[in-house]
Design brief:
There is one protein chain. This protein is an alpha+beta fold. It has a domain of 42 residues. A two-stranded antiparallel ribbon has the order 1-2.
């Protein structure tokens, strides 16, 4: 992880604050946005997509379990 920006660096020019899902904060000068930082954000997006897919699968699993329980109760 990079060292925090100094107050002087934060006050110069336009800054963009990037907050990731892990709560990490990056303050970057708009003119110094690098492809490395873009790659970091792309990896963060990919991680979020993976998390969403896992959540969707868990929801499907729970819905199927509930359906099976309801089917069993309907036969009783």
């Amino acid at each position: 992880m990079e060292s925090p920006q100094t107050q002087q660096e934060e006050e110069e020019g336009d800054v963009i604050e990037i907050v990731t899902t892990t709560g990490d904060r990056d303050v970057v000068d708009e003119g110094h946005f690098t492809s490395e930082r873009a790659q970091i954000l792309i990896r963060e997006i990919m991680g979020c997509n993976t998390d969403l897919e896992n959540i969707k699968q868990n929801i499907n699993d729970v819905q199927n379990k509930m359906k099976n329980i309801i089917d069993v109760l309907g036969r009783v």
